[in-house]
Amino acid sequence: MDNKTKTIKYFLYARKSTDEEDRQITSIADQIREMKKLAHDRGLNIIEIFEESKSAKNVGRPVFNEMLGRINKGEATGIICWKADRLARNMVDGGNLINMLQNGVLEHI
Hints:
This protein is α/β, with parallel strands linked by helices.
């Protein structure tokens, strides 16, 4: 592991698109457990966990937007998510993440 990875502060983001447990293969609790294990195994510094039960197809998820706002303020520069589609499934949110990566606001997903 390189030293840069150790210094990055990570937000952990877990999302499922519905509150109905039978419609989701991986629960938020399962996602968090797996991501915490990954972070522990790789020595990553998780500073906060964000949980959301909203579809990522539409723009305007409050928890996601709060997380991005706090990244823009410099509170963290990395995101850990279970799968890429947990972060964004629309062009606006995906574009915002790409822009943040290109501008160095976000260093690692």
